[in-house]
Amino acid sequence: MKLLKCPINGTRPISEFVYGGTYRDMPDHEIVTDSEWASYVHYRDNAPGLKKEWWYHGPSGTWFIAERNTLTDEVKDTYLFNKLVEQESVK
Amino acid sequence: MPYKLLKFGFGREFNESRYFEDVQTPKKTYDVVIIGGGGHGLAAAYYLAKEHGITNVAVLERGYIGGGNTGRNTTIVRSNYLTPEGVKFYDASVKLFEGLSEELDLNMFYSTRGHFTLAHTDSSMRTMRWRAEVNKHVGVDSRVVGRDEIAKACPQMDLDCSGHAAIKGALYHNPGSVARHDAVAWGYARGAANLGVDIIQMTEVQDIDVRNGKVHGVQTSKGYISTGKVLSAVAGFTPRITKMVDIKTPITIHPLQACVTEPMKPWLDTIIVSGSLHVYVSQSSRGELVMGSSLDPYELHSTRSSFDFVEGLTSHIVDMFPFLSNVKVVRQWAGMADLTPDFAPIMGKTEIEGFYLDAGWGTWGFKATPISGKTMAATIANDKAHDLIHSFRLSRFEDYELTGEKGAASVGH
Amino acid sequence: MNMRINKQTGEWLEREKQINFTYEGKKFTAYEGDTITSALWASGEKVLGRSFKYHRPRGVLSLANHDINVMLTDGVDTNIRGDVITVKEGMSLTAVNTLGGVKKDNLRYIGKLLSPFLVVGFYYKAFFRPRFMFPFWENIIRHGAGLGKVNFNYPRIPKPKLNEHYDVLVVGAGPSGLAAALAASLDKQLKILIVDENKQAGGSLGYDRAGSVTPQSQLEELLSEVNITPNITLRTDAYAGAYYTDHLIPIIEFSGITKVRTKTLIIATGVFEQPPVFRNNDLPGVMNGSAAQRMIYRYGIKPFNDGVVFTANDYGYRVALDLIHAGTNVKAVVDLRKTPVSSILTRELANHDIRIYSGHCVYEALATSDDMAVKGVVICPFDEETNQADSEQSFTIECDGVAMSAGWASAAALLYQSGMKVKYDYTIEQFIPDSLPNGIFAAGKVNGVYDFDQRIADGARAAAEAMRYMGMDNAPVITVQAHSNVSPSHSFPVVPHPKGKNFVDFDEDIQAKDFINAAKEGFDNIELMKRFTTVGMGPSQGKHSNMNAIRILARIRELPVEKIGSTTSRPFFHPTPIGHLGGRNFHPVRQSSIQSWHADAGAVFVDVGAWSRPAYYQKPGVDLAEIIQQESMAVHNAVGIIDGSSLGKIEVCGPDAAQFLEKFFTGKFADQKVGEIRYALSIDESAVVADDGIVSRVKDELFYITIGTSNAAMVYREMQRWLQMWQLDVGLINVTGSYGIINVVGPKAVHVVSSLTQDPLVSKLTAGKVGETIISEVPVRIMCVTFVSNIGYEIHVPADSMLAVWEKLIKAGTAYDIRPFGTDTQRLLRLEMGHYLPAYDTDGLTIPYELGCESELAMDKPFFVGQRSLKILAKKTLKKRLVPFVLADNFSGQMPEDCNLVIENGEIKGRVTSISYSSKVDRVIGFAYVDPNKVEAGSQFEIRTDNGSMVKATVVNTPFFNSKKEF
Q1: Residue C141 half-sphere exposure, CB side, CA atoms within 13 Å?
Q2: pTM, entire model
Q3: CA contacts within 13 A on the Cβ side of C167
Q4: Which GO molecular function annotations are given, in alphabetical order (chain B) (predicted)?
Q5: What are the residue ranges spanned by the domains of chain B?
Q6: Mutating which of C161, C244, C725 best tests the A interface, going by the most A Cβ atoms within 10 A?
Q7: Number of CB pairs < 8 Å for A and B?
Q8: Was domain B111-176+252-337 assigned CATH 3.30.1490.270?
């Protein structure tokens, strides 16, 4: 059983978490073409590597972002979504 | 005793020849390069050579043949799907499987044992009914049966599942079978090699040379090979290959795990699947119970085993078979499955000229081995999707024309 | 013949306690502490099992669970491993997989007669022509395979599971493991666990004594130190089952599994002895040297009377000295190596007048006339360079036992599973760790360290490294000397013999020639060879066979051993019982706070998602179909009551609450007035229907949502996620468990509900409205919902007060014959009302357009989840549509059922999703997917029933009973 660190509740066994898929930036729905939108909805950045992912700590109802390497299963960092927003805005 | 064995008893020497030549160095040019020496890639090579006369073919395998999901699955073959296109496709596969031992002169241990998909809830009974109706429509032998019929086929099972999820009925699929998975790969490899195909193991594809939207060759750990046609048949590794040609797919990779017990005398004659309990189990001809469960709950490109899997699986196994409490699990393992949003494969041509995909196999790849080989061979030879795989084209996602296989929404292996 | 010798120091027996048992119908006695195998061997019993394929008689090989020669059944349990399972009073044992008993196993003729035909992979080459004969052959093969028979009456034994956390977990309580634990224990803060699969700690130090008393005193010293160290826990008879991510190691004991999570892991699991390969190396009486040593010092048994030691390392000399100590007449030491080993050991043997044949091999073991045991060995010169035995110069030595010592293989399963990279060390002819993952350390023989002092040092080194890994920078730096003696393993202890029967894998009856033949057929890499020959795939998972297989393949390929590599190691280290792994298996079920009331009222429960809900209430003498009609007619004619507590309940509050709902659901909520309720549909980003529910605006900034039972957790989770992304000022509270829901429906419902309160709110409440009031001192929310009836009150009550309110309603309803109803009737009632049910009338790909619910899609909103996909889908041709239909008046004949297909011109156009007879409508009514051009009322389509007959159905408007006049 793998361990994962919830930014609020600390390190817990993975059975307490729900995987929410890779974090995806939603394109502006007003300007994208149908095909671009379909690509956003269906296609995934699926090659292995370090990914920003949604994870949910079930018992406490906490969504957060985990930076996890999908090849090695190593988790580099976990943080609340706000931090991702801050990072993006800095960029 | 079969004649073939008499030969060994009375012959002085063991004169069996190699199944396939272990080609060390690839040629400079091939008509078709197949990435992936699993069942699918080898079958495609075999049918390219046999049915389309295209023999200048290389099968490139990064490890050894059949070492990926071909050698890791639980060997179930069936065609009791939900959509007509799915049922027809897998039914064609079952029919090819039935004659495969003779065709490839190798005993695949293709054993038709009947297949029960158990329903523990009213809603899964409805799904079973739905599947049965579609199967019947297409001419596939599936029907909904009650507890009595399940009890007759498997009297040892606790139909009340220790009181936790009593079985209400099942979808019974008469053609449900198991086969010796490794032998399928070996048989196709030998068949293809005999027709002139080069099978090149321990050779990794590092890049695919695409220029002006067209395939020109592949860069491998053993040098550059020029070719106009490349088939990717690498379930579990598909995203790594599609990245090389820069095409997007909806595939995500999830490990799929399985385990076996130590051998015991045969008692389980049929194949038992429970979607609700996430269990499938059959007994191999070695006497081992071969058991599997649903996909791992998160994306991972690795074949590590997890304890959660074996704990969950066995807890359900003892619900169904309490007397197995002290039967021992010998070994667990994992494969990597391509998961698609609509639980159907992705097959056929792509936007890149000369790049063909055979992917998205989820948990159903092994049972499709012969038909995927045959249809992909036809698709490559004619550069036009075979009729049976039209619904499985990659562009269906952009077109919002997903197949209906997900309608079943419960696991089935 | 009694082989027991006098008491040995450190032996595992309690000689004062005698145990009686039977084996193959014969009576035996044993001492407490004896394993089944040791007890039988002590009594002179040598045939302890039959092999898997050829049914050859088998005795002891490892006496350590590295082989499965001795597999037994006691009539209750099967595949009992005699080498390690202690014998218990009254056991009645037989060997598994024999026909007629272990001595007279009639299947032995298979081995004798058929083995020439049963070449490696024989089953791939035959039996499939003609095709119809395969089931016949398969049946024979299936019954031939398998070991023990399963006992179908075996009780379910759910074992508990524990969780424990340690700083250091040491696997293996041999000298290196004990030394590692002791070294780590100097930091008193560290919590240390040592586990060992054996009944007693000590590892090889307990039995590899070379006739000396020193090893045992060294062991006792180590153990007494461990015993007085408070921060070390030592658990024996406990094996580490596997390594899993993040240092999770299940420790398996008879009593159950402890899931150990450790900061650091020290693997000191030692090595498995690998038998040399020569003809008849499997005869009872031929055993590993370490097996003979275990026999002597653990169980006080003389392994044989007249023994020959066949060795290819120095350990054979130690074994010879131990045999002498046990009273065995050691007739020869046959050393495969040409250069005699000049050491203390040879001198000691010389003192005992033991003849040493250097550069010789045991060419074959000879069987007694009944084939049941060894009677002698054929010895001949052997050339290590060419791997040739000069059988022309052979001679025979009579003996009743052979001890074999040729080398070792790392017991590195957990290290492999953790991701270790290995290298092959030619100085010891063994794979050893090259690099290890973080927090994992190896010590002792598994790490290639053999000398006793160095093993102690290596344990301390591993501990120091573990401590440094945990941040203790002052841990000492300890160096371990490289191996300087002769190699403990021989590079190729394989003696060719034209007649074969020189076994590599005893589980699977695989001989040396099988590898050669497999390679001839092209299976010449280690993984393919494993799969083709099945080497290492038996229950002992290659513990005694993998290394020899690799060595043989290396010779065949003319490659160095490290180029061959090794096969993947997978859980479990030893086969592990399903009951242990499954554990106690908890099945939590959610119940309404008045579940017992339902039970008392005769409810039959059904699982709905995580909940258990009443499906219907039994009435004596009334069948289910009739009950459902009665319950529904009660609602239509008077009043019914249903417990809807399982519905998901979510409060959405805050300044942006309305905005949030507008984004999450397809409909509009910004203009919803306080006191109003609205239907809410949620779809996912690809526009597939997820769920629906009811949104009540309780206050300006407080919405209260009820959603479907099964999807509630998922919908709540998705709401939380979107809220994060939208960063709105909204609070979401899942109050599903806090409230019960009582739904009072039917024309008399208003009387029943208003009789409980003076508040005029209730009587004034109209459809689509919600209010808050007090009912018998309980604050409640009441909403007027027309889901199952035109008149219905959904009363949301704090869960702990629900029973009181429910009972008052029942009492108030008595005057109107109020009837409780369950989910079965609810489904009929909503069908009669013409409402589809997500997950019942929809599937995993249904889009709103297929439900014809365009009016619920506020496409003029700036955004909602799935909206953009809907815009794309709106341009596409619809493939099917859900429609309400009826069958002909007075329909008789084969009744269509759920999931029967809608067929047009032989093609599937859709399916029936709901269908039922309705007393109220007096018709068979239902929902079905049909061709989109058949949506108009009056359109007709055909349903194919179970028996194949086609039934005409007519599309109608809903609610069904309102449109009755139209039929």
Answers
A1: 22
A2: 0.95
A3: 23
A4: oxidoreductase activity
A5: 27-73+182-251+342-408, 111-176+252-337
A6: C725
A7: 61
A8: no
